[in-house]
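**User:** Once you have settled down, spend some time on the protein underneath, comparing sequence with structure tokens, and judge whether sequence predicts the tokens.
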Amino acid sequence: MEISKDTIVGDLVAQDYRVASVFKQQGIDFCCNGNRSIAEVCQQDNIAVEPLINALKEAAHNKAGSNIDYNSWPLDLLADYIEKTHHRYVENKSREIMPFLEKIVRVHGERHPELAKVEHLFKESVGELARHMKKEELMLFPAIRKMVQAKLNNTKSDSPIGSVAGPINVMMQEHDTEGERFREISKLTDNYTVPSDGCNTYKITLLMLHEFEEDLHLHIHLENNILFPKSIAMEEQMA
């Protein structure tokens, strides 16, 4: 894929996930706000265009980088992968992180009052993500799978939710909320930096929170930039 100032950030990451590391280093949101061009991103974040494009091209040509071609996967396979990999990660990891977070709030909260806010934001996120993922698993993803099967069989898609466009719009709005929530967590923790008086539990907790956010970025990217637009395009094509 040719990379220029007019390239859409989310499209580029969908084509080659190796470039995501460059956007992360620059603090550029490629998942929730992936519909911006490189020129728009650079203008909004005061980043030089040419050095960013050069770094993106270098990352795209790095043979050692991981580049699973999610963009070529059938939509039902991608939905299955998101559910079994990222949804399960959120469920399992949130249960693991919560006791650690509660402990460092109890032990370090007096000297670091921002931890209570981090705990509150994370609990909110866990609750909202649980509801969000259930809506995808029980309504949206089955509708996408039915649509894919109908196309393979050359039959009319009999979706219980009607058009997928409406639910997808709701899911993307909820993604925006979670992206903003984790930007606040990152800001409160100084990008997950352990303070000088932080113990090993403090360090482990911030590492897990950072990993959780990284996984969420990929999770949202796969939906916002690949699964959702392709599902809408398939539905329009079949209509």
Remarks:
- Residues 95 and 126 are 9 Å apart (CA to CA).
- The chain has two domains: 9-60, 72-238.
- The chain has a mean pLDDT of 92.
- The longest helix spans residues 114-153.
